[in-house]
Design a protein that fits this description.
Blueprint: E1 5-11, H1 17-28, E2 33-39, E3 44-49, H2 56-65, E4 70-72
Antiparallel strand pairs: 1-3, 1-4, 2-3
Length: about 80
Amino acid sequence: MNETVTYMLSVRGLCCDRAESAVRRILEALPGVHRAHVSVVAGRAVVDADPAVVTASVLAAALAAAGYPARLDVL
């Protein structure tokens, strides 16, 4: 069984529902991502993913390439 971890990312550029949907689609299209919840209000994405397939760096790079700079939040 694959392990699942939750990554929390601060995302810049989240200004509206359209950006929220775009970020969610970008994240959920990545291999290993099971679910992404994005909040404009919080400026954050919470991603459940298989750490053997996708890392926080991969998530942040995919968002940055689409114009949404992101960084891992440390809990």
